[in-house]
Design brief:
This protein is mostly helical. The protein has three helices and no strands. One of its GO terms (cellular component) is nucleosome.
């Protein structure tokens, strides 16, 4: 179960970043190049920072949906 939760958290975060890349390009549809850009940017973020961002997003979802 922990592997599924970690995988889902990673993918949700990746798609959130991907969507921001598409919005920045003034599009509403994500494209493969948006995912590539999001992954490239994430590669330059120190690993500890990625963990902090994942935890922050998880807390926001918990507050929004009232689940853990």
């Amino acid at each position: 179960m922990a592997l599924q939760e970690a995988s889902e958290a990673y993918l949700v975060g990746l798609f959130e970043d991907t969507n921001l890349c598409a919005i920045h390009a003034k599009r509403v549809t994500i494209m493969p190049k948006d995912i590539q850009l999001a992954r490239r940017i994430r590669a330059n973020v120190p690993n500890g920072m990625t963990d902090l961002l994942c935890r922050k997003r998880e807390r926001e979802r918990e507050r929004e949906y009232g689940v853990r």
